[in-house]
Design goal:
Elements (H helix, E strand, L loop, with lengths): L2 H12 L8 H11 L3 E5 L5 E5 L8 E7 L4 E7 L5 E6 L11 E5 L5 E6 L9 H6 L9 E3 L5 H6 L8 E4 L4 E3 L4 E4 L2 H17 L7 E7 L7 H10 L3 E9 L19 E5 L7 H14 L4 E4 L6 H8 L5 E8 L7 E4 H16 L3 H6 L1
Parallel strand pairs: 3-12, 3-13, 13-16, 14-15
Antiparallel strand pairs: 1-2, 2-12, 4-5, 4-9, 5-8, 6-7, 6-9, 7-8, 10-11, 11-17, 14-16
Helix pairs in contact: 1-5, 2-5, 5-9, 6-8
Length: about 350
């Protein structure tokens, strides 16, 4: 992993870009690839990265990674100055109380706050026993305001503005471990960007368009628009996928840190094309690139949208394992990111019209 790649991962993780507010994330990818791609953007904040060597007479491969992260939107301001919020995407709610956050105000500034957690001193016996969060309506953000008027006037808070955890990226170089927020799917965005760069000067049998898609965490909305605009014949979907190496029975663990990208045969939204899936896994074995496979009983991703909208176009999901996704902080490994890029590049290099028709 080069310094250039690490800087992009760091900046993408730190970007404040929940679903519907992806501007910071896509600006970083635009800047990273503007020298080698034709870059376009739509009003839904999908970013299109078109390889300049495309000829228009080859099968079209779409690379996808979603640019949004799970986040929050301000719902209302309570009389005492705390902020009610709604979720953008599916949080592990139990991780939220006590989380430091940043809330955008009317001036575009990001105001620091914290998701309030009642001290145990004030908890009833029942609350101490439960220690859980019943619903988002039971949570508020506190920015230090003392009234609704102060929150609006002194802090510039207004409803409809986004908020994200205030988690800062950290890389432990000696152990090749990254910690931060939004690795779902910013680590995938970084992998897509690097894949596009490595493909720049190669003679390929396919045309390639990359998409940083929006609003995946609230129902794959951006990909539904992007896939019809791109109209691909085949797709690779990058993800930051949930690692399971610290949960459950050892025999059933299928997404481990430092074992390479995970390619899922299925989740609740999609059954990936089994022939394309095996093609990629066999190629990984042939090239000595670490990879792992899984059968998922939960989750969903943009591959489902691509298959459905494109009348069954083959798609695979190349996920970089991330511990504790959909919480304020996650952990992933640089070598898994690097293996995902290596495998994606080899896959694209080995695709042609005949092989794609065979899927």
């Amino acid at each position: 992993m080069t310094e250039r790649e690490l800087n992009l991962i760091r900046n993408l993780s730190n970007a404040k870009a929940p679903s519907g507010f992806e501007e910071e994330a896509i600006a970083l990818v635009r800047e990273a690839l503007a020298d080698i791609c034709e870059v376009q953007e739509d009003s839904l904040r999908n970013l299109y990265l078109i390889r300049r060597a495309n000829t228009g007479d080859k099968p079209l491969l779409m690379l996808d990674a979603h640019g949004d992260e799970v986040g929050f939107m301000i719902h209302s301001i309570r009389p005492e100055g705390t902020l009610r919020f709604v979720n953008l995407g599916g949080w592990n709610k139990g991780t939220l109380p006590g989380t430091a956050v940043k809330i955008r105000n009317r001036l575009g500034e990001w105001i620091p706050g914290v998701i309030a957690a009642k001290p145990p001193h004030f908890m009833s016996t029942e609350e101490k026993a439960r220690q859980g969060v019943a619903d988002y309506k039971d949570l508020v953000m506190d920015i230090g305001a003392r009234s609704k008027e102060e929150a609006e006037e002194a802090f510039g808070i207004r409803i409809g503005e986004p908020a994200v955890p205030a988690t800062a990226f950290f890389y432990d170089e000696a152990r090749d471990v990254m910690q931060g927020k939004a690795f779902d799917c910013r680590i995938g965005c970084a992998a897509l960007a690097e894949t596009m760069r490595r493909l720049e000067k190669l003679d390929l049998a396919v045309d390639v368009v990359g998409v940083i898609s929006s609003q995946e965490e609230v129902g794959e909305r951006g990909a539904s628009v992007a896939v019809e605009r791109v109209n691909p014949d085949i797709a690779i979907v990058f993800e930051g996928c949930p690692a399971d190496d610290t949960f459950g029975e050892a025999y059933a663990r299928q997404t481990l840190l430092k074992q390479g990208p995970m390619l899922r045969f299925m989740d609740v939204s999609v059954i990936c094309n089994p022939r394309f899936q095996r093609f990629v896994l066999d190629l990984a074995e042939e090239k000595g690139i670490p990879a792992q496979a899984s059968v998922r009983e939960g989750g969903g991703n943009n591959a489902a949208v691509i298959q459905e909208k494109m009348k069954g176009a083959p798609a695979v999901v190349m996920g970089v394992p991330v511990r504790y996704i959909h919480t304020p902080g996650g952990i992933c490994a640089g070598e898994d990111y690097a293996a995902a890029v290596d495998l994606a590049v080899e896959t694209v290099k080995n695709l042609n019209e005949s092989i794609i028709k065979g899927f």
